[in-house]
Design goal:
Elements: E1 23-25, E2 32-37, E3 41-46, H1 56-69, E4 79-84, E5 89-94, E6 99-100, H2 103-108, H3 110-121, H4 135-145, H5 147-150, H6 155-161, H7 167-184, E7 191-193, E8 202-205, E9 210-213, E10 220-222, H8 225-234, H9 239-253, H10 259-285, H11 296-311
Antiparallel strand pairs: 1-2, 2-3, 3-5, 4-5, 6-8, 7-10, 8-9
Helix pairs in contact: 3-9, 4-7, 4-10, 7-10, 8-10, 10-11
Length: 318
């Protein structure tokens, strides 16, 4: 038995190449486990870690359908095989070799990124996994509303959450922004968006000078401004990089990016991530991890949530 055989025992045989010369776990996400075989063949297992707000079968369906739709597109990995028995969900895809995007790297490749995203945004076909993107915020709002009931904790930790805005205030902020966004952007194109443009999901291949996007679990038909706003807010782009990025996207769109639409969309992306971070912190505090208030992940989640809510003036600077 090869030393990596044990690593592959949980993978359905249909997903693996005929010959295996190597296998290793690469960095896992919060909702998935990734094994790289032969340095070219990636098997991704979808984990049951976020069932309240985003069932695993939907994450699998969205990525599988998106990769099927993008077959042959140089800006997405190639889908090799997939497996779904109603209980376990896997995708095998090609490994994307290259440089993960960073702030410095983006500044030198903004035009390339804009061109690559425009290629994705030119697609208007729907898939079975498509959803209304802002429904994600609605799901997070419902969980935020019931945090204390769903994630009980000791009184010693209550002060960590006491300063966060009330559900009523956050919900009204969401409603107001959706209404204002609809009033100024009532006629908008629905195009294929990636939906999760953190730097770790954007890879530049220097070999062929192409940018590819990985992890399509949140892809859907939506307003293209969502991808741009997500890129800006979730990667905390500096004003200089943000200005250059918006300018290049405007050139590719053929018209200037509407600053008011972008601002409202950015606010909604910050609201979504603020809710997500505080919910993750609440889940974490309800576990049996000793000294949770000193745990790096707990502290990080709280800090990120505070930053997002403060950016939206939903809580005062502490």
């Amino acid at each position: 038995m090869n030393h990596y055989s044990k690593l592959l025992t949980q993978i359905p045989p249909i997903l693996m190449p005929k010959e295996i010369t190597s296998a290793r776990i690469i960095e896992d996400g919060l909702n998935n486990r990734n094994i790289l075989i032969n340095e070219t063949w990636l098997v991704k297992e979808y984990l049951f870690t976020d069932e309240t707000t985003d069932p695993v079968n939907l994450r699998f369906l969205r990525e599988k359908d998106s990769l099927l739709l993008l077959k042959g597109n140089p800006h997405a990995p190639g889908l090799l095989k997939y497996y779904d028995d109603g209980i376990r969900f896997f995708i095998a895809r090609t490994w994307v070799e290259g440089q993960t995007l960073s702030h410095d790297y983006l500044l030198d490749n903004v035009e390339l990124l804009a061109n690559s995203l425009m290629s994705i945004h030119s697609i208007t076909e729907s898939t079975a996994g498509d959803f209304h993107y802002y429904d994600v915020i609605k799901r997070y709002l419902l969980e935020y509303k019931g945090m204390k009931r769903h994630y009980p904790t000791s009184p010693s930790l209550e002060t960590e959450f006491s300063h966060f805005p009330s559900y009523e205030r956050v919900n009204q902020y969401f409603i107001d922004h959706i209404h204002q966004l609809q009033s100024i952007n009532s006629v908008k194109p629905l195009v294929r968006i990636h939906g999760d443009l953190v730097f770790s999901n954007i890879i530049h291949s220097q070999k062929n000078d192409e940018i590819a996007f990985i992890d399509w679990e949140y892809s859907t038909l939506a307003d293209p401004y969502i991808d741009l706003a997500y890129l800006i807010t979730q990667n905390q782009l500096s004003q200089k990089i943000q200005h250059t990025t918006v300018e290049k996207f405007g050139e590719q769109l053929g018209n200037q990016v509407n600053p008011e639409v972008l601002e409202f969309t950015c606010n909604l992306m910050n609201l979504m991530s603020g809710l997500w971070y505080v919910i993750q912190a609440a889940r974490f505090r309800s576990t049996s991890v000793p000294f949770v208030e000193q745990h790096p992940s707990f502290i990080e989640f709280l800090s990120f949530a505070k930053d997002r809510f403060q950016a939206l003036d939903l809580i005062e600077v502490l």
